[in-house]
Amino acid sequence: MRFAIVGAGAIGAVHARLIDSLDDELVAVVDLDLDRARHLADQHGARAYADAASAYPEVDAVSICLPSALHATAAIDALYAGKHVLVEKPVDITLAAADRLIAAQRETGLTVSVVSQRRFQEPARQIKHAIDSGSLGRLTSGIVESAFYRPNSYYEGDDWRGTRAVDGGGALMNQGIHALDLLVWMLGRPVRVSAQTGQLAHHDIEVEDVAAATITFESGALGLLLASTAAYPGRPVRLSIHGDRGTAIMDNDRLDVLTTTDAALGEHSSVRQAHLAQYRDFVGAVAEGRAPGVGLSDGRRALATVLAVYESARLGRPVELEGN
Prior knowledge:
With 324 residues, this protein is α/β, with parallel strands linked by helices. Helix content is 37%, strand content 23%.
């Protein structure tokens, strides 16, 4: 499969390395800053373009690596150019934009996947298998922590970071959404959120650097979420899932506890390996004409939950999630 990357920033460079690890080919890098596009393209034997439309005749699929508020529009343009699309998280920063992308995917019939690589980590997949097989019994609760640290230089590195208009949010929208997606994947449809957010360690940004929430799921299970970029020096994601017949815990990219089976506890599964596995899943979905492991409905549900956290924090009361 011939790929184009749209957006030659830090995450675009990550995607370029991932594509190089596959049997597929990176043939185009697109960025409004043509020098930046050339810099990344030259490292990977690709051609640089300042506009996506010029690159699209050369490619089969597009990886969208732009700032968050540009995701849906760029993905829609790629779909109507006849290209399959892998879009970085979040799917966008509004549900209206996500719904436009869903409509375009339905109209074109092409494959679209939203990056949520933690679902492809082996410990997470083992936990999900234990849930689906009933080994944990009735799920009662889950806890996920995304306690990261980002220095002020992280937000100063790009003028869109930490802005409401383009980043769409802070520690939860940009970092913690991966952990939140795991909790939603495990526990099902969220129906109510009660949350608080704070800007505690970074003072020149418009968004939160800490978010905490209680989430009620359709099954009745309760979830606790912490997302932070103000937790020095930063900790790996930790996920705990509890049922009335078992408990499962993933910590530091390892399966730490799984009380119902002889799973390989302690086996490490890096986020990079999982990111690569999602790429393989996307390529396989295109080749086999099947749905990808993470689809637009998954991306929309994660986004809807993030936005509910923000609304609850703003209103100072719980909010209901409808139709997610």
